[in-house]
Amino acid sequence: MQALLDLEEKISVLTGAAKYDASCASSGSGPGARGGSFRSGGLGAALLNGVCHSWTEDGRCVSLLKVLYSNVCRFDCAYCVNRASADTKRSSFTVKELVDLTCEFYRRNYIEGLFLSSGIFADPDIVMEKLIETAKTLRTQAGYNGYIHLKIIPGTGEKLIREAGLWADRLSANIELPTDKSLQNLAPQKSGKVILGAIKETFEAGAENEEDRRRIKFLPQGKFQAPVFAPAGQSTQLIVGASPEDDKTIIGLSGALYKKYALRRVYYSAFIPVGTQGRGGISDPRLPDIPGPPLVREHRLYQADWLLRFYHFTPGEILDDKNSFLDPHIDPKTAWALRHLEFFPVEVNRADYETLLRVPGIGAKTGRRIIETRRSRSLSFDGLRRLGVVLKRARYFITASGTFIDRAEDPRRIRRLLSDADGAGLQLPLFEF
Ligand code: SF4
């Protein structure tokens, strides 16, 4: 009985301690990514401690057990509830406890996957070994085929990063703060160089694995198949608002990470003031004194990130020296359009796909539908509406067979009309804009 209570307490402490890490969406790992039974759906999972919901790239909601192996940490990152100097209850799982817990939740259909991270309770390689052992035991002994996301502990050696990718669907090394200067100030035991080194190593291991598998594919049937290295790729997290960098720096960094290391996702996590929000700490003079997490800013960064990944914008087009912060009142695509009225109006019956993507209110899906539909007939505004174009935004920037609804001649007027001053719709950016 005592052991059961201990385990319940551990679950409560170690799922509570994990909830501030945003980088857990299981996008990119479709059903059977490892040939297993990656199931969809879940039963009342929101009621359980540590079960979080994430969204795949196709908008499907999945539930994950999000937990720390241990919240004991030698590091003292100012923004973290688990930092060494925080007065908080500490606990650690054993590998067996975590394996049993994951399997139990999975069998009961509470979860579809595991997101596992840890405080740095020992040398980084020792901590990483525990995370790997958990994933490996799940795969090789417990018959678990669900999704696994492993955090790469800062300072982990290359060999262990390569091993982690053989058991996990996704790996992530959190950059946390966008510049080395801020890391030195708020997380002095961390180094940007080391974190970027882990991201690079993960990228290279994935590329080599792909190459190996391509070669092996040509071997005769029945030969050994190389395992897939982290099939859902890698992601990272940036904390927004704990340090003074502008959005231009953050989006510039994200753009470089997508381009250089093919990251699947950068997650933006609005800084939650540690001392003032009752997260079990003493307020730290190095941290900004803000009333609450900057959620509107976080939301705009997700929208700008969407422009990088799906709308072929470059960081320099989204923000520049004159506009180094995203407009809180208007989405970044509309903000770009209002700065580039010379680009408009776009004639929807003639424009190519790339040009259509630049129009506020036309997304990737509706852009493709426009191209497809106009092969057989020319499009009117009613037709555009039926295809899913958001005319509330697009009307100022398009013509249909030369006709206008409204003309964007005065950017201030359009800005006023399209402004959502409260940062409306703080949902994940799964919509097209
Ligand atoms: S390394 Fe830093 S961010 Fe990670 S658990 Fe320790 S104190 Fe928190």
UniProtKB/TrEMBL annotation:
Provenance organism: Leadbettera azotonutricia (strain ATCC BAA-888 / DSM 13862 / ZAS-9) (Treponema azotonutricium)
Protein name: Radical SAM domain protein
Cofactor: [4Fe-4S] cluster
Domain Radical SAM core: 69-207
Domain of life: Bacteria
Keyword Iron attributed: yes
UniProtKB keywords: Iron, Iron-sulfur, Metal-binding, S-adenosyl-L-methionine
UniProt key word Ribosomal protein: no
Single Gene Ontology MF annotation: catalytic activity
InterPro entries linked: Aldolase_TIM, DNA_rSAM_put, Endo/Exo/Phosphatase_dom_1, rSAM, rSAM_sf, RuvA_2-like
